[in-house]
Amino acid sequence: MHPPRRGGRNGSGNRQVSADRQSGRVDRPPAVSRTPEQRAGDAAETLVADRLAARGWTILARNVRVGRKEIDIVALDPGPPPATVLVEVRWRARRDFGLPEETFGWRKRAHLRAAVGRLVEAGALPGGGVLPAAPLRVDLVVVEPAAAGRGPVVRHHRDALAG
User: Fold this and answer.
1) Which of 23, 70, 90, 155 is least crowded, fewest Cβ atoms below 10 Å from its Cβ?
2) How far apart are CA 30 and CA 42, in angstroms?
3) Do 40 and 102 share a domain, yes or no?
C-alpha cells in the first residue's frame, strides 16, 4: 500500500491540502507573498493608523474580518463628540482612472454597511475586543504618493456613508 500523498497537485494544477490521519497534522501549501500593490496598500493603512494615533485616536483593531467583509481600521475618536470609527483606507498610485475617492462606490459602501451591521450585532470585535458604546461612524481616508519632495497626500473624509 502506498503512503498518503501530501501537498500534491490535483488534476487542475491546484495544490491539495492533505492530512496525515495518524498524527492529525495538516500540510498546507506555502503562503503566497504579497504583491507590490498589496504592500503599498498595507503601508498606506499603517500610515493612516499612525497619523490617527498621533492625533489622540485609539486604534482598537486593524484588518478586521466580519464574515466575508473586511474593515481596515477600527478606532476610537476622542471627539468631540467621541465616536467609534470604522476607517476605510483607499490608496492609489496614479490618477489615470480618477481620484481615490471615486473608488469608494456603491458596492464598497454596501459591503461596509453590511460589516457595520454584523459588527453591531456581535457587539464585539472578532478577536474578542470590546466594541465601545460610542456612536458609530464610517470615515474614508485616501492616500496618494508624495508629490515633488513632500510626503504622501492624505485626505480624511468623515462620515463617508452619509449622503
Assistant:
1) 23
2) 21
3) yes
